[in-house]
Amino acid sequence: MATATTVPPAARERVFCHECRSEWYRDQGGLVCPNETCRSDFVEIIENNNDPRQMPDLMDFDDSDDEDDHYRHRHFPPFAMLPPMGARSRSPGGTTVIRAEGPGFSYVTTRTTFNASRGGSGTSSADGEVIADLFTTMLRNIMGDGWERAAGAPGGAEQGQGDAREGGDGQPHSPPPSYGSGARLNPRNADAPQAGDVPNPQDITSFLASLFGAPGTDDPAFARLFGVPPGAGGDYVYSQAELDRIISQLMEQHSGNAPPPAAQEDIDALPRVMVTEAMVYDGVDCAVCKDDLVLNEQVAQLPCKHTYHFECVSRWLEAHDTCPICRHPITPEGRRRERRSCSYPITPEGQRRERRSSSSASGPGQPALSFSTTFSGTPGFPFLGLFGGPTRPPQPTSSNLPTTNQDSNQQPATASSNPTHDEIRDRTACPPGSFPTEDDEEPVPRYSREQNHDAGDNGPRHHHDSGSGQGRSAFSNIFRRRAS
Amino acid sequence: MATAQRRITREYAEIQSNQLEGVKIAPIDNDMFKWNIELTGPKDSPYAGGTFKLFLTLPDNYPFKPPILSFQTKIYHPNVSNDDKGSMCLGILRSDAWKPSCKIAAVLEMARGLLLEPNPDDAVEGSIAEEYKSRKASFEKTAKEWTKQYAK
Q1: Which residue among B106, B121, B122 sits closest to A412, beta carbon to beta carbon?
Q2: Which residues of B form the catalytic set?
Q3: pLDDT (tens digit, 0 to 9) for every residue of chain A, 484 residues total?
Q4: Which of A400-404, B96-100, B120-124 shows the lowest per-residue confidence on average (mean pLDDT)?
Q5: Using CA atoms, how far apart are residues A247 and A242, in angstroms rounded to an integer?
Q6: pLDDT score for A205
Q7: Which of B97, B100, B103 sits opposite A416 (nearest CB)?
Q8: Is A290's Cβ below 8 Å from some Cβ in B?
Q9: Domain residues of chain B, as ranges?
Q10: How far is B139 from chain A (nearest CA, A)?
Q11: How far apart are CA A184 and CA A76, in angstroms?
Q12: Burial degree of A481 (CB within 10 A; 0-12, 13-18, 19+)
């Protein structure tokens, strides 16, 4: 409503009473109907482009009859604005602004007009639009125009609020508080400023959150609506930096790609050996508790020939299937492959399932699902680990696995400044040279980001790391390495 | 707990008898699971002349879980988070890279080694890492200034 531009400040404003339909000059009668029998404050300033006298049916609130009164204009109080579902569709009339102002206040409400084609089924799309529109209006009414500032939402039909306090009355005009029609929830004295504060948009956010039983900011729409700082809202992210932050957090929470636990039967099956004089002479200790091994003590020996107190090493193996010194797994080669093919190490579900059954090749359902929700942009690549495994050519068995000299078992703890690569090598434990390369035959197509771009090409694919560089996080590198 | 206590006590004795260069350790209030650490800046690094206080926390189930190392002194370094936590991104301390055979002494030596040679490819402070890689002089200048200002 471009009040200020269309009405010169000097012009006399005429006020129309909606109750008794009388008219008067504002500077004479103010904003309460001067009619002794009426005294209503339901008045409106007549403007060139908004003449309330043109709406004869405005006061007809009786909707029990007149079914053929097709164009019914009505004013809905703020919380009674929602028409019955499917009952009405939007009239061409749209929305107008009713305003009332005084020296210390200004009051604005919106009026939405509908046609009343009741009884018909009503098209759902039109109703949806109406309801969405009404909801927006209601929010705006609850929150005042602070909402618009906070949300940066487009103005829509009700842009009148912003200039609501523009007055042509020439009165001293210190900025009066502006109230949305939500103020009408309380009994209202039109002669005095309203009590209560304009609601803070933040309060409304939390109010809505509790109302809907879920964090309001979890919905991107809500986040935008209420001006949540860009980038993050709850577990949702809208920027690369925030996504990275969440990924690191997840990696920490889920022990990252830490090696999965060993199966209890494999731990129990570890061979026990007697500590020999030579071992004592060499000062071999248990690398877990750091106690020296005692002659003729029985210790557990891992496939890599490292020896430990059984209690010490089993506690570690129950968490991670690696030698505490050289990180070689104790699970025999064949079963390791199987396990890898049926679980995804990053999800706790996968790890738990592994512990329970090391034999069954269960489907890729749960781990893949929980993962692809995190990486909705690249739904394909979580499957890398699932599909890569079983199609590989048979590997040499553990006979040619690296064996470590016991004398050198106090190797310095280096080697992990780049843990991802080493890690994966360790876990898959392929001897150097037998590690599958890109040149291996792959009868089943591998899934990758590229695969997503041109779905339909089902032929064997070969991927090269240098191929799809941009915007790749360290995380996806891990999977790439895993696949290669 | 008992395992952890025994192993930590043993490691503490080892470090005492075989002092690490530029590293001072002091368990807090005889609680062997919390140590105060003092690192002196390596000579050929922008941290030379500074003394950096760190806090080492050993988990109850050490050595099955890695220790936690955090800088109490502000430091301009790609691998130390520039916040009140001052957490150090040390490869071997990550849960996926940790192994029980790793000793506290090795951890502290690596921490000091990281002062001598930051690892920008495994950084927590991306902008500092970027500066370290592309504008080394500018990085060293700031690192020296911070050392002077905070690590005295």
Answers
A1: B106
A2: 89
A3: 444 444 455 578 888 888 888 888 888 888 888 888 888 888 888 888 777 777 654 444 444 444 444 444 444 444 444 444 433 334 444 555 555 555 555 555 555 444 444 444 444 455 666 777 777 777 776 665 554 444 444 444 444 443 444 444 444 444 444 444 444 455 555 565 554 444 455 566 566 655 655 444 445 555 455 554 555 555 667 777 778 777 777 766 665 567 788 888 888 889 999 998 888 888 888 988 888 888 888 999 999 989 999 988 998 998 888 899 888 888 887 776 554 443 344 434 434 444 443 333 334 433 333 333 334 343 434 444 344 334 444 444 444 444 444 444 444 444 444 444 444 444 433 344 334 433 333 344 444 343 444 434 444 444 443 333 344 444 444 444 444 4
A4: A400-404
A5: 9
A6: 59
A7: B97
A8: yes
A9: 2-150
A10: 22
A11: 12
A12: middle
The verdict on ipTM greater than 0.95 is no
Q: Does A257 touch chain B (CB under 8 A)?
A: yes
Residues of A in contact with B103 (CB under 8 A): 290, 413
Q: Identify the closest residue of chain B to A291 by CA–CA distance.
A: B7
What residue spans define the domains of chain A? 3-199, 202-238, 264-483
**CA-based nearest residue in chain B for residue A289:** B7
SS (H, E, C) chain A: CCHHHHCCCCCCCEEEECCCCCEEEHHHHCCCCCCCCCCCCCEEEEECCECHHHCCCCCCCCCCCCCCCCCCCCCCCHHHCCCCCCCCCEEEEEEEEEEEEECCEEEEEEEEEECCCCCCCCCHHHHHHHHHHHHHHHHHHHHCCHHHHHHCCCCCCCHHHHHCCCCCCCCCCCCCCEECHHHHHCCCCCCCCCCCCCCCHHHHHHHHHHHCCCCHHHCHHHHHHCCCCCCEECCEECCHHHHHHHHHHHHHHCCCCCCCCCCHHHHHCCCEEECCHHHHHCCCECCCCCCECCCCCEEEECCCCCEECHHHHHHHHCCCCCCCCCCCCCCCHHHHHHHHHHCCCCCHHHHHHHHHCCCCCCCCHHHHHHHHHHCCCCCCHHHHHHHHCCCCCCCCCHHHCCCCCHHHCCCCCCCCCCHHHHHHHHHHCCCCCCCCCCCCCCCCCCCCHHHHHCCCCCCCCCCCCCCCCCCCCHHHHHHHHHHC
Over residues B133-137, mean pLDDT:
92
CB-closest option in A256, A290, A319 to B10: A290
- Average pLDDT over chain B reads 89
The CATH number that domain B2-150 falls under is 3.10.110.10
| Residues 194-213 of chain A whose Cβ lies under 8 A from any Cβ of chain B | none
Residue B25 belongs to what H/E stretch? strand B23-28
DSSP for residue B20: P
Q: How close B119 comes to chain A (CA, Å)?
A: 8
Q: Please tell me if residue B43 touches chain A, with a CB cutoff of 8 Å.
A: no
Tokens of B147: 């050392």
- Secondary-structure class of domain A264-483 per CATH: alpha beta
